[in-house]
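Structure ticket #2291
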Amino acid sequence: MVRRIHAKRLIKNGVVLDDKSIEEVKFKLKNIINTHRRALIGILGSPGSGKSTMAKKISEKGFLGIPPEKILLLDDLRDQAGKQYRLRELKRVARSLSDKVLVLVDYRSAVYLRNLDFLIVLPVDEKERLRNLGKRSPRSLKRYGKARYSVPPIRLCYKNVFLLDKSIEESGL
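Resolution: structure written out below.
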């Protein structure tokens, strides 16, 4: 409950990724990669907010100026080849990255790894979220249509929280 209240506050006060702020984020990301030899990014949002669609775009076009071959993308803890990862393996995978960016796309990605460098939230209004779930399957709508899934949980320790603007999402990062 506390995480969801905190998440609502972070989402309300988060920096919107638009044409102006995207360059600043790219600069910060390059500095993190140069300093730590890797970067950890979490993309989260409610079920039906477009996380998997975003993951497909990232795997094809790259992300924030990083080419696709330098990105390890885990969508619902699966990589592009279909390998399933366990939660306890994530820390080891994150430590083993060298000159790569781990992009973790999941509803609970902010809970899985505490030391994410960036957290990008895909905000969506409730009507659109329910419509997207209905397009996916009736089972998804029944399972995730509850109001408790409308805000993803976020730990209290994140400072770099960004909201993805729909125009940026459509044009691609």
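Closing remark: The mean pLDDT is 76.
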